[in-house]
Amino acid sequence: MFITRNYTEESGFCEASCSFCSIAKPNPCSSSSKPTIWRWFDVLAIPFDHADKLRPLLLPLHSQDKGRKNRRGVFEAMTMGSSPAATVLVLVMCCLLCGGGAAVEGGLIVELVTPSVSLGSDAQKLQVSVTSSDGSPAPAATVALASVHSVASDSPVSISEQSFASIGDGKYELGLSSSDLFLGKYKLRIDASSDDDKGFLDTVIAVTAPISVSNVKVGVVEGDSVLPESDARLEFKQTTTLSATHLQKLKLAFEVSGPSGALFKPQQVMLKLRGESGVEQTFLIKSSTGNSYELTLDFTKLVEKLNHQSGVYTVDLIVGDDVMENSFLWTLASLDLDLPEGPEGASSAPVSKFGPKPEISHIFRQPEKRPPTYLSMAFLVLTLLPLVGFFVALLQLGVNLKNLPSGGLPLAAAAGFHGGIASILVLYLMFWLKLNLFTTLQVLGFLGLLTLVPGFNILSYLANLSSASKVKTS
């Protein structure tokens, strides 16, 4: 009996159909070789039927590996790298569940060749490879882009062209343009099918492109003045020379745009001031409107951060993103900054955030003086004297066990009463050693109830015994 497998989206499995039943088996995870368990199934000709029994055991496990989605079943996870005994045990279980014999045919495996697509001048195309389970190129397969979702917004994206074109040797490609996808990351679902088999790929790709910076204006102004249009404008990678005092401000404005002038906001947009003395300060630049960025540095508020260090500072613009092909550090200007001197006696050396910290000296509190040993022992003896006096008084009174019941319920009540008294004394000892007041009171209430009931019974027994003895005497 020959079994043919096809992927169905409803079940999440490669469904194998025969003349008797519908069965399920996950896709192999590697195009170079079949997993251990599937090779054993092929050799021993064990069928995958009775889907109701096997389906709970074959729930696929998902894992992401270099841009492709691997689908592994529980059988494969149990047998990959395991001992032959474990493999045979799983096979025996399958034989008991299924029974019979069959030859299994592999499905289609879709793998991503290009993990990123460039929208630059040398634009690349999205390429995938489609192979059968034994690693050979799949002949005459139909490959299409089923769905595209933006990772940032998780919203669907429409693509004008969705069919891949074959370029030979089991590889297929799809051309993308800036009108279809913009810079960012996208989740793709790619389906492949041939005459007998089907396969799919869920993956994430990065769409990259070079970005452009324009309308760059930098300058020093007084108060809230506006930058002059002519003197402050810079071309890309151009550097200017500026000078300022602590009473002035540095203003920077520029625009960032993607391909065809589209709006793009990089992940990292920063301005760095680097002084000759080693002082460094970094400032985040936020977007004002659309793709425009502005930053104003008030040197009056930066005197302390710059450690009162006058001199020449390098002004660097840093723009970067993981989908940018031309992330850069651009030296905008050389700034001669005049700052007031610091307080007398203050250190002019720059403070390093990651250098060694000053040593902290600390003296622990001296232990309190303890009394002499002989005084402590004398206090202990005085504490034990009342206990000794208690036992001496018992002997003087002639305490005995003549009235102790000989058996039955009165004997049990006497044992419970004296046991309760002993437990309370032990509780007092534990309170002195480790317990707190609240815990001691809770346990004391419980022990008090346990002591009360047998105490009442034994006292009633003694009262009745005393009355009986008086009646006999009279």
From TrEMBL:
Cellular compartments annotated: Endoplasmic reticulum membrane
The keyword Transmembrane belongs to this UniProt entry's keyword annotation: yes
Record-linked InterPro entries: Ribophorin_II_2nd (IPR055375), Ribophorin_II_3rd (IPR055374), Ribophorin_II_C (IPR056790), Swp1 (IPR008814)
GO annotation, cellular component aspect: oligosaccharyltransferase complex
Any Pfam family hit: Ribophorin_II_2nd
Ranges where the Ribophorin II C-terminal domain occurs: 364-463
Bilayer-spanning residue ranges: 374-397, 409-431, 443-463
Bilayer topology: Multi-pass membrane protein
Main localization, broad class: endoplasmic reticulum
Pathway in which the depicted protein is active: Protein modification; protein glycosylation
Function: Subunit of the oligosaccharyl transferase (OST) complex that catalyzes the initial transfer of a defined glycan (Glc(3)Man(9)GlcNAc(2) in eukaryotes) from the lipid carrier dolichol-pyrophosphate to an asparagine residue within an Asn-X-Ser/Thr consensus motif in nascent polypeptide chains, the first step in protein N-glycosylation. N-glycosylation occurs cotranslationally and the complex associates with the Sec61 complex at the channel-forming translocon complex that mediates protein translocation across the endoplasmic reticulum (ER). All subunits are required for a maximal enzyme activity.
Full protein name: Ribophorin II
Source taxonomy: Eukaryota, Viridiplantae, Streptophyta, Embryophyta, Bryophyta
